[in-house]
Design brief:
Blueprint: H1 12-23, E1 31-35, H2 42-55, E2 60-65, H3 69-82, H4 93-106, E3 111-118, E4 136-142, E5 155-158, H5 164-177, H6 188-194, H7 199-212, H8 216-223, H9 230-233, H10 247-251, H11 255-260, H12 267-274, H13 290-299, H14 307-310, H15 319-331, E6 336-337, E7 346-347, H16 350-358, H17 365-379, H18 388-405, H19 416-427, H20 431-449, H21 454-469, H22 473-490, H23 496-511, H24 515-532, H25 538-553, H26 557-574, H27 580-595, H28 599-616, H29 622-637, H30 641-659, H31 664-679, H32 683-700, H33 706-721, H34 725-742, H35 748-763, H36 767-784, H37 790-805, H38 810-826, H39 832-848
Parallel strand pairs: 1-4, 1-5, 2-3, 3-4
Antiparallel strand pairs: 6-7
Helix pairs in contact: 3-4, 5-6, 5-7, 6-8, 13-17, 17-18, 17-19, 18-19, 19-20, 19-21, 20-21, 21-22, 21-23, 22-23, 23-24, 24-25, 25-26, 25-27, 26-27, 27-28, 27-29, 28-29, 29-30, 30-31, 31-32, 32-33, 33-34, 33-35, 34-35, 35-36, 36-37, 37-38, 37-39, 38-39
Length: 862
């Protein structure tokens, strides 16, 4: 039997499972089968049991290399002669072997038979020892996951790699025993992980380190160097334990047998595909895609045939055969298939994958990469939020594929999976991760394709969208302006991608408060799309909706409503009444109705859209939750605060469940709920939520993201509401300074922050400072938005109240009278802001006769 390896690890948890299987066995058939891939230590574990049996005085310990059944028979026959088994005469090996089997079944002596490396389960039929007493035990090892091995009462014990602790303990003991303890450093854990905790690889690596006097960190650098083959970093000269094979050869030892197993010729191409994906697992559904079936059809290998038969085309590989090839690889321990793991069902050891990649012809890599990319893209759901675990698995598999495939993935259409992974990160709200990912993709695209390739322009456009989400609006604009310039030159001014670049730039202009630049650009894009791709194209409808949103932003609400009604009619006619785009257009119209005081109409639309969205998209689809949040806002505007809170609590719970507690949309929902709590007088609850939202925004988005600034300002508003004015002022001064620096002095968010600070200054008795800020806000809003924009009217009203508080009389009345007239004309007589303007004017007018005024102000942030 083989000697125990240096620094052999007892593997107590694994031995407990073996012992439990043995103690639960039947006295007549006491057989455990240690099953696992190459190099996991099956034979070493069996050898440790054999050594213990010898030490315990077991009468017979027989070690049988069982790769070939004839070898089993020969050793049984030799043993029969040595134990003088009745009927064993040394003439016919098979007869003597059966005599030995009979002796084992009846002898009262204690014995252990180890069948090491069973490769032919059917050939072993009739050659499994049995005992009619408690004295006999059979221990077998195999790479196979085959039900025939566990028939007849035999029990399988799966053997996997070392645990992290066992791997580290092995390195410590192995190096120390060879007076090389100085080679153990802080990189030991990382090294063990890189080796996949595989006992065989750890043994070779430790010997190599000792021979070359390399510490763990230096060896790890060599091991992870893609230019070095496995046989260079785990060479035969490091086989100090006498395994007899190179690591790569050991890992792929059973591949030839798998290739011969039906469906023949598919195991090797299937393994090469799996080797390009995440060792931690990929979805089982990948293997029923046309991409993989076509690849297996084209790369199936068969035994040599006659010249005539080779001309006959091969039958296409079916999804059933593709899945069968996986089962074959699982059976021969080349990978593991466990459909209970769903999205991580197919796993492969990292070293097995590396060995497979290193034996793959370079000419096949492009086809392999494009096949894997196409299959991943094909099973990627349209909406990730319904399948977060699947989306996460697909993203990691895309990352691993890109890492292994390199420039082979930058073929036409193959790189689409890279763009899809970026969108998945973006839609999951992983702002930092999506930005870093898109930066890397854009850099790789330029490296592999050149600076002006259309896919490079796409990658840069995606990166600009990430910058925008991360609050880096000016960087987004700079990049989009560059993309637009390049697209015009490379693709032409009327190419669809050029139009998309112009539309994206217009959106960023709007987000930066540069609405006067956004609107003409969107109007031009809309006209071009109507002319080039037609008025009914989905992209045209999207542009029309975006233009309506920009009109709304500058107070041109009547024009926005007219445009939104047109979008609804077109979407209903072209896409159908239940299409998500149609429902979204209806929701936008409802928001516009709310802004002009037509709250009841807004509620009617939103209630209907919410019901339709639940029915067609599902109750937890992101768009459904957005409509629900809008309905809650309308309920709040109508004074139906309890109903608003009930909806917002449901939205928060759903977004936490679907998106996670720190997704930006979840944090927005919690912030909205806090606002409703505040409106209902539940200020303490509002503050508790807002404090957690601020902390989460800072952690997820960073301290300078616009949403983080909004969260801080909301918290300051609540502090002010409960009399914590000084704390509110401290926060708002910082928010205003950050907004001016990050967004610019005339960005809408900056002006809102200034208005909030002015309110708190006045509340704290600092009226002159409040007036100075509000005069600046009024001037900026008139310049940027126009004198009749709702936000400008709000700022003028706030300034008038501050003038009154400072002792002015005629001027505030004149301003408030003008604001009221403009509000009635622009917003309508029943709009909430008009009602507030009327109340402010009436109050100041009445109080002016009594020498005092009540402060009735608009707090604009929420």
């Amino acid at each position: 039997m083989p000697a125990l390896a240096s620094a052999f690890q007892p593997r107590s948890a694994l031995r407990e499972r073996v012992d439990a299987a043995r103690s639960s066995g039947n006295a007549a058939v006491l057989t455990q089968v240690l099953s696992g891939g190459g190099g996991v230590g099956k034979s070493q574990l069996a050898a440790s049991y054999a050594a213990e049996a010898l030490g315990d005085g077991t009468d017979l310990v027989l070690w049988v290399p069982a790769t070939e059944v004839q070898q089993v028979i020969a050793l049984y026959a030799q043993a029969a002669v040595q134990v003088a088994a009745p009927g064993a005469v040394g003439i016919n090996p098979e007869d003597d072997a059966r005599a030995f089997m009979a002796w084992l079944a009846t002898t009262p002596r204690r014995w252990l038979v180890v069948l090491d490396g069973i490769a032919d389960p059917s050939g072993m039929d009739g050659w499994w020892p049995a005992s009619r007493s408690d004295g006999g035990w059979v221990l077998a090892t195999t790479r196979l996951q085959d039900a025939r091995i566990t028939g007849g009462g035999r029990r399988r014990v799966n053997v996997d790699v070392y645990t992290a602790a066992e791997a580290l303990a092995y390195l410590q003991v192995r190096l120390a025993d060879d007076d090389a303890g100085h080679l153990l450093d802080t990189a030991a854990g990382d090294l063990a992980e890189a080796l996949g905790y595989l006992p065989l690889a750890l043994g070779h690596a430790a010997a190599y380190m000792i021979n070359e006097d390399l510490n763990c960190a230096d060896y790890l650098v060599r091991f992870t160097d893609r230019r070095r083959q496995l046989d260079h970093v785990l060479p035969p000269t490091a086989d100090t334990e006498g395994y007899g094979r190179q690591v790569a050869a050991t890992l792929l030892l059973s591949l030839d047998a798998a290739q011969r197993t039906e469906p023949a010729g598919l195991a090797e191409p299937a393994l090469r595909l799996a080797a390009l994906l995440d060792p931690a697992g990929h979805p089982h559904t990948l293997w029923v895609t046309p991409d993989i079936c076509d690849y297996l059809t084209q790369h199936r290998t068969r035994p040599a045939e006659t010249a005539e038969t080779t001309k006959i085309p091969q039958d296409p590989v079916t999804p059933e055969q593709a899945r069968a090839s996986l089962r074959t690889l699982h059976q021969y321990a080349l990978l593991n298939v466990d459909t209970r793991r769903e999205h991580r069902a197919v796993r492969i050891h990292a070293l097995t994958a590396r060995a497979a990649r290193e034996t793959t012809p370079a000419a096949d890599l492009t086809t392999l990469a494009t096949t894997a990319a196409g299959a991943l893209l094909r099973i990627w759901p349209d909406v990730d939020q319904h399948h977060p675990a699947l989306a996460a698995a697909l993203r990691t598999n895309t990352d691993v594929l890109a890492d292994h495939a390199g420039d082979h993935l930058w073929q036409p259409e193959a790189n689409w999976v890279l763009f899809r992974a970026g969108r998945s990160l973006f839609e999951s709200g992983l702002t930092t991760a999506s930005t870093a990912y898109c930066q890397r993709v854009a850099s790789d695209a330029e490296h592999f394709l050149g600076p002006e390739h259309p896919d490079v322009l796409t990658a840069r456009g995606n990166l600009a969208v990430c910058y925008s989400q991360a609050g880096r609006t000016e960087e987004a604009i700079a990049l989009e302006e560059r993309v637009l310039t390049d697209s015009r030159r490379v693709l032409g001014p009327e190419h669809p991608d050029t139009l998309a670049a112009r539309a994206n730039l217009a959106t960023s202009y709007a987000e930066a408060g540069r609405t006067t630049a956004s609107i003409p650009l969107l109007e031009q894009v809309l006209a071009d799309r109507v002319r080039i791709i037609g008025p009914d194209h989905p992209s045209t409808l999207t542009t029309r909706g975006n233009l309506a949103a920009s009109y709304k932003q500058v107070g041109r609400i009547a024009e926005a409503i007219t445009l939104e009604k047109q979008v609804i009619m077109d979407c209903t006619r072209i896409l159908g009444p239940d299409h998500p785009t149609t429902l979204g257009a209806q929701a936008s119209l409802a928001v516009s109705y709310g802004e002009v005081g037509r709250t009841n109409e807004a509620i009617t639309i939103e209630e209907r859209v919410l019901a339709d969205s639940k029915r067609t998209l599902g109750p937890e689809h992101p768009q459904t939750l957005t409509v629900a949040a809008n309905l809650a806002a309308s309920y709040s505007q109508a004074g139906r605060t309890k109903q608003a809170i009930a909806i917002e609590e449901t939205v928060v719970a759903a977004r936490e469940r679907v998106l996670g507690c720190e997704h930006p949309d979840t944090l927005t929902a919690r912030s909205n709920l806090a606002s409703s709590y505040s409106q209902a007088g539940r200020t303490k609850q509002a503050i508790a939520i807002e404090e957690t939202v601020v902390a989460a925004r800072e952690r997820v988005l960073g301290c300078e993201h616009p949403d983080t600034l909004t969260a801080r300002s909301n918290l300051a508003s609540s502090y002010s509401q409960v009399g914590r004015t000084n704390e509110a002022i401290t926060i708002e001064e910082r928010v205003l300074a950050d907004s001016e620096r990050i967004l610019g002095p005339e960005h809408p968010h900056t002006l809102k922050a200034a208005a909030n600070l002015a309110f708190s200054y006045e509340q704290g008795g600092r009226t002159n400072e409040a007036i100075a800020i509000e005069e600046r806000v009024v001037a900026a809003r008139e310049r940027v938005l126009g004198s009749e924009h709702p936000d400008t009217l709000m700022a003028r009203s706030n300034l008038a109240v501050s003038y009154w508080q400072a002792g002015w009389r005629r001027k505030p009345l004149a301003i408030l009278e003008s604001v009221l007239a403009d509000s009635e004309r622009v917003l309508g007589p029943e709009h909430p802001n008009t009602l507030k303007a009327r109340a402010n004017f009436a109050t100041v007018d009445r109080r002016s006769r009594r020498g005092r005024a009540r402060r009735t102000r608009w707090r604009p942030w929420r």
